Amino acid sequence: PYYEYENNRESREIVSAVEAVSYNLENGKVVRTKMKRDHLFRERVSNTYMHLKFTVPQVKVGSVIEYEYKFASDFISDIKDWKAQQELPVFYTEYNLTVREYIKFNLETRGVERLESEREEISTDISIAGKLLPCNASHVVFRGNQLSAIKKDEPYLYNPDNYSTQVIMDLKAVDFPDFYKNY
Q1: According to the model, what pLDDT value does residue 154 have?
Q2: Are 80 and 32 in contact (CB under 8 A)?
Q3: What is the rounded radius of gyration, in angstroms, for the C-alpha atoms of the chain?
Q4: SS (H, E, C) the chain
Q5: Largest CA distance in the chain
Q6: Least confident of 42-46, 53-57, 71-75, 168-172
Q7: Per-residue pLDDT tens over the stretch 79-128
Q8: Tens digit of each residue's pLDDT (9 = 90 or more) over 28-54
Q9: Out of 12, 76, 93, 166, which could bridge 83 as a Cys pair, Cβ 3.0 to 4.6 Å?
Q10: Which residue(s) pair with 173 in the sheet?
Q11: What are the φ/ψ torsions at residue 160 (nearest 5 degrees)?
């Protein structure tokens, strides 16, 4: 799901560069089948939200599915939670995140499975009221390897998502030149 108000193109979220591949073992060889663009579907859910859906070709029992996408948002104060652990086992997962220096977040990793992380400071810019302002940013990469499946039907487990390996970010403060607000 992503935000795209029907009548407002100024504030929105964009999902792009969607790629998906299935891998199957056939006659002792790995067969790679790439998703075609006509397997992408955008569905309007409400006047403010869209869903991007896609189908991966040649998926069957035992297939390995690989997909990636880019997500960009005009809403600098809201970074969606990233769930590294899913209902199916995850062989490898990676989350790249760049946060400008003017926006401060509380970052929390949760779950039993271990995530590796790397942080790098980079130079970039931010657009404010149509003007580009140079700034520094923190580029963080989270990686998970061989993550077990999270079971949704465990008895006596109220909310399995509370135990899945994930990254959660909440807005802490906005710290622009001549303006600071704590949340």
Answers
A1: 77
A2: no
A3: 19
A4: CEEECCCCCCCEEEEEEEEEEEEEEECCEEEEEECCHHHEEEEECCCCEEEEEECCCCCCCCCEEEEEEEEEECCCCCCCCEECCCCCCEEEEEEEEEEECCEEEEEEEECCCCCEEEEEEEEEEEEECCEEEEEEEEEEEEEEEEECCCCCCCCCCCCHHHHCCEEEEEEEEEEECCEEEEC
A5: 66
A6: 71-75
A7: 888 999 988 899 999 999 988 898 899 999 999 899 999 999 999 988 77
A8: 999 999 999 999 999 998 888 889 999
A9: 166
A10: 104, 182
A11: -60, -25
Task: Give the contacts of 180 (CB within 8 A, at least 6 positions apart).
Answer: 173, 174
Distance CA 149, CA 160 (A): 11
133-160 pLDDT, tens digit each: 889 999 999 999 999 998 878 787 778 7
- Scan for tokens 């663009």, then name that residue: 37
